[in-house]
Structure formats: C-alpha cells, structure tokens
C-alpha cells in the first residue's frame, strides 16, 4: 500500500513537472534538446532475466538502453503493467513523450489513451506489428508511429517453416508418446507426410512471406502466393513461386496455408466459417501474423471436425491467451505463446533499432523510411 | 488358445511343405519359377490401419503387395511378433525364402537365426538401415541383403531440419505452456534463437546429409561436414558447406550437430562422455541415424547438466524404447518414436521398391546397384 501510494504521488509530481515546461500540443518530431520521458512496456522475465546477458527484451533488461538514456538526462520508466485504470502505464500516460511497446506483450494504445497523452510524440514498436495501436487515432493526433522493420522477419520466417514441418510430419503425437511412456509408430505414421511435393500457399508475400518462400524452395513444393503486388521476376524465378490473383482460388489448391498479412480492417476475421469450409479437407494452417485474422471458434470447430488437420501459430486474440481460449484445447494444434519474433537474435536487432530511432529523435533526424507506420498523419500502405 | 494352437499347427504344416521341395543350401538369388515363402515383419496399426488407404507400411496393409504375391502363387506371411523363442517370426525361420524387415519395428536377424534359416536367400529392408541384420553372418551365408535406397532420404532430411528448428527456437516449452494454461514469453525467449548465423555440422554427408545441407542453405548458417569422402565441388559450391577432415575439430566448432552416419562397429557409442565433454557448452544435437551411436547415459547426463542444451531424434537403443529409457525423462529433449522415414510418402516409396526387387528376384534379375547392402558375400562400402 505504502509503495502504491508513493508511486501515485511521484507520478503526480512527474506529471506536474513535465506539463510545466512542454507545449502539450506540440506533437511533432522536432525534438528540442530537453529531458524526455520515455516509457517502455515489455514482458517481465522474473527468474529468467539473469539467465542470458543478451535477453534484452524483458522489463528487467529494458532493451539495454537505460544507462544510455539516463546519461543524456532522459527519464526511462519500464513496466509490464498495462491493463486497467490503475496500472503503471496509466500513471505515465498524461506526461510521457515516447511510448515503446512490443507485440509480444501488447500495451493497447487506444484513441482514448492517445487523447489523454498530451505530451506524446512518438510511438515505437520494439519488434514488428503495430495493430495494438489505434493507428487512425495516432495519425489524427499527428503522432509518429514506427517499428523496427526487418528485425523479426528472419525469425518469423524460420518459425513458420518449423511449424509447417511440425504439422505435416505430425511431430507432436510422437513427442506425447515419448513423454507418456508409449511407443506406437502407427499412431503417428498414418497421418505423417513429407513436405516435398505438397502445395504451399502464402497469404501475403511481404518481407516475411518472401523469406519463407526462399526457405521453402529446396523442399520441392508447389509454391503459391497471393498479394496485392507481385514479387520481383527474379524472386519468382529463384523460388518458383506462382502468383495467384484470386485469394479463394489459391486457398482451394493449398495443402498448407501460411498467413503473412498484417491485421487490418480488411483481414480481421478473414478466415471465418464460410472461407474455411471451402478449403481442402485436411488442410494445414500456419499463422504467425495475427490471431484476429482467424475467427477463433471457426478454427476450433474445423480442427474438431478434421476439416483443418493441423493448426499452428504463435498469435492469439486476445493476448495473452486466456486459460479458456479454445485453441489451447482443440485437436492437432501446435501453438505457442507469441514468441517467434522475440528470439535472442531478434531482441538484439530490435533493441538496436529502437536505440537508433531514439537517437535520431533526440537529434531531430528522420528515421529510415521503411520504419514508419504513421508519418505526418499518413498510414503506411500495408495498414491502409 | 484355440487360435494359437491352430496357428502353430498350420505353421508346422507349412514348414513341412516348404522344406520338401526346396534345396535348403541354395542361397543364391537365381530364383527358380516356384512358390516362395515370403515373411514380412512390420509394425501393427490396429485402429489406424483403416484410417488412410495409403498407410501401406503396417502389418494390416502389408506393403499393399499381398494380392500381387498370392496371384503368382507365393506365400506371404506378415506379423509384428518378432521377439522370443515362441514368436510368430520364429515359426517361419526354418522355411522362409525371403524376409522383409523394417527399421521402424526391427526384427533382429542374428547369426543364429540365419543359421537356422536354411531356405533363406534374400533379406529386404523396407526402408533404409539394415543394422538390425548381422551383415557379416549374412555375407558369410551367401545371402543377399538389400534396402530401398533413397526411399527415406527426403523424409529424414526434412525431419532433421524440423528438429534443428524445434531445438534452436525452443518450441516445446512454449507448447507446454499452451496446453498447461500458462503464458510466459520470457520463459521461452531467454533461450530461443534464430537458426541464421549458427554453425551446423553434419557427421556424415551421404544422401541424407547432402539433402539436409541443401535444405539448410537458405538459412544462412555456417555449414560444415565430416565424412570419409568430400562431396562434389558443385554441391560444395551450391550449399557453401565446408569439409572438415578431423571429426573432433569440427564438433568443437558446432552450435548444432546432426548425425548422418550409419551404425557400424566404428560408430557404436562414438558420442561418449569424453567426446561430449569436448563439445561447445549449450550444443544442440539431432540424431535420426541410430540410437546406439550415442552413449545413452552420457547424453542424458549432459542434458541434465546443460552441456547439451537440446537433444532430438527418432532413434533409440533399444527399440522400441522401454518405458524407463532415460531419454524419455531428460530435460530439453524433443524425441519421438522411430518415425522420420515412415511418412505416408516414404511408405509408398519403399513399398514400391520392395515390390520391384521381389519382381526382379522372381525373374532372376539384378537389383539396382545402389540397393545392395550385401552381395555375393561382400558388404556395401558404408557398412565396412
């Protein structure tokens, strides 16, 4: 109680201090050389924080930029407490200048929060995927939203290929036999296949989708992709992937579907009961993009009926997945928490990317063009 | 009881019939156009046998060659009962001409069994890996031993890449969280890595090792291989893999070791306590070759200490793995029963290969050269 009181008090002091010297309506990125209040919302590592010196993506290690920020006179608050009116994040909304969030433990930046964040100028995503931010509201408020584009693409593409293989080769029933003291090759083999020769389609061929196609190439599959734009003729030739203009025509051909498209108003719930019913019976689906691209119950029902023979991914709606989320209990799932873009390698990349953007922000410099999600009131094309 | 009695009786009748017309000492492959007794030992599928029409590798579906064999007047006995003096296989040892076995449910063909199999001419392995056969004794007895070379190579190479990714990306702790109702990204992320940039070495670069190197290529790893012979300059260039003449020097460099060498007297127990102690701390090991290449307890101890950070494979010693096999209980294992070469696709390939060799045998024709393991008293080079 004492602690909470002190925290609330110091927060009120900070709010007072911050609002005194700063023009609350200056939402532009031309940052004066002054002390900024930066808040980061990450996942807590507890006993794991000290187990790996490169584990920078957690609250405790705070992207490894605390000393650097504080040596320049900035304030750096880090928390994992992001939900509800009394959470730690809420205390800093009124006076923070920069909010760093992550898709792995998303702090939802609603229109309402943006309205109250009078000093907010910059929203940085440590990782990729900024759909936990109300981008329209951010654009209207004149904020800048940026990600560390590219920081997770290799990680996620690798992870997708792992999940494809886990499903097509029926890995998990065998693993369960091992830990349960059983041995029944037939119980695995009757639905285990090679990846070779199967038709794999990616919905979306952005950076992750393209890296996946390159990694799939030596497996001698029939590769298809659907997107608004075709990939380069060179990459088409290198991967042998064929462009499919009509999404549903492509999906009906696929043994394995991989989702590589951002969550937007258009893709929200795109895999609903009707669309799933038109897929091949026994289709496998890998989705590391966003959980809400699926109709949760429709996926669970199709796994139960066997129409979907396997579903794997690391994204859920909502996140963290509640204990009673139906995907935890559906048959033939190979799910994990949201993890694919937060390997140690990816953490080091997005920590470096966030530091670089903060440095540019302090100096009033532009960011690398591809990092912008919202700039000068405009959404990046993939979010429109 | 009744059933067992009848079976024993009919077996005795068959033994009598068969031994009357055939020269017991004719061990050569020049097969006269006569009725042969062919015995197949496969795993039982029970309720799974009818779930997939292409599931031909089990006892019930018997490689899908029963009608073909019987229409030509041959006898075809199929069983999974292969151990002990009173097993079904034992009843047929005295008079069978051809024995078809599989590494997934190995019937051990000992010198003693070979001695008693007076009519035996041909040992066919449905799949790859004939170390369950006493090859020396088979050679001395003038038998022919052949596998369906190539039938499983794609399957096993794919499976190895899956296991590499499962270990390096730390998949299983995340999966356990999902099924246990938990959500703790940090508990996974602190030891999850990308495959990109890691040093991967294969011990053995035969057909499977080479296919693995090709599939690893787009992951941008540092690829090493050790074998008696170098791979072709073209393949070295294509994969970027570097030859390492000294096994232990290569192993000390590896973040990930993959075993792709057959089990021989030389490789039996090659990963013992001493060799493991010289590996990088935190090394990952994938072994789909043979369980006995590892010292079972040394691997379990190194997983417990963390020296080996992850171990995955589908091969055990012995097989089936007993309920108290230490690998079932060691930390950071991603094991399955022996499954990688018996996907539905692989089953169709090795069933077709066995049928083709039987057809050639009946006609007195040679097999494709690469299928021979023992021919005219000589072992194939990889088994010497």
From TrEMBL, chains A, B:
Its EC number is 1.17.1.9. Keywords: Mitochondrion, NAD, Oxidoreductase. It is found in: Mitochondrion. It catalyses: formate + NAD(+) = CO2 + NADH. The keyword Isomerase does not apply. InterPro entries: D-isomer_2_OHA_DH_cat_dom, D-isomer_DH_CS, D-isomer_DH_CS1, D-isomer_DH_NAD-bd, FDH_NAD-dep, NAD(P)-bd_dom_sf. This is Formate dehydrogenase, mitochondrial.
């Amino acid at each position: 109680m004492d602690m909470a009181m002190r925290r609330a008090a110091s927060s009120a002091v900070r709010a007072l201090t911050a609002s005194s010297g700063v023009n609350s309506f200056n939402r532009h990125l031309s940052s004066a050389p002054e002390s900024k209040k930066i808040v980061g919302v990450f996942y807590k590592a507890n006993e794991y924080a000290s187990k790996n010196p490169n584990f920078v993506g957690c609250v405790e290690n705070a992207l490894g930029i605390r000393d650097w920020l504080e040596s320049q006179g900035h304030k750096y608050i880090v928390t994992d407490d992001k939900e509800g009116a009394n959470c730690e994040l809420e205390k800093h909304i009124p006076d923070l200048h920069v909010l760093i969030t992550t898709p792995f433990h998303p702090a939802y930046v609603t229109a309402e929060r943006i309205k109250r964040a009078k000093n907010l100028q910059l929203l940085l995503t440590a990782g990729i995927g900024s759909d936990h931010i109300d981008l329209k509201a951010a654009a209207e408020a004149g904020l800048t939203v940026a990600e560390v584009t590219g920081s997770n693409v290799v990680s996620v593409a690798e992870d997708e290929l792992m999940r494809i293989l886990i499903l097509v080769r029926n890995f998990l029933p065998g693993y369960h036999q091992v830990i349960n003291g059983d041995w029944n090759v037939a119980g695995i083999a009757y639905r285990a296949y090679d990846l070779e020769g199967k038709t794999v389609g990616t919905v979306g061929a952005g950076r992750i989708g393209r890296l996946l196609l390159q990694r799939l190439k030596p497996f001698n599959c029939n590769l298809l992709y659907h997107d608004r734009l075709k990939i380069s003729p060179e990459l088409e030739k290198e991967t042998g992937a064929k462009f499919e203009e009509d999404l549903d025509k492509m999906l009906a051909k696929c043994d394995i579907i991989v989702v590589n498209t951002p969550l937007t108003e258009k893709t929200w719930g795109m895999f609903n009961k009707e669309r799933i019913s038109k897929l091949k019976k026994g289709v496998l689906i890998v989705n590391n993009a966003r959980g809400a691209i699926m109709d949760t119950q429709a996926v669970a029902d199709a796994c139960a009926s066997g129409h979907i023979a396997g579903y794997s991914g690391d994204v859920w709606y909502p996140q963290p997945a509640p204990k009673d989320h139906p995907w935890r209990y559906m048959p033939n799932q190979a799910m994990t928490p949201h993890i694919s873009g937060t390997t140690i390698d990816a953490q080091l990349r997005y920590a470096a990317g966030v530091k670089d953007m903060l440095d540019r922000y302090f100096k009033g410099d532009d960011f690398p063009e591809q990092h912008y999600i919202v700039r000068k009131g405009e959404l990046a094309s993939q979010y429109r």
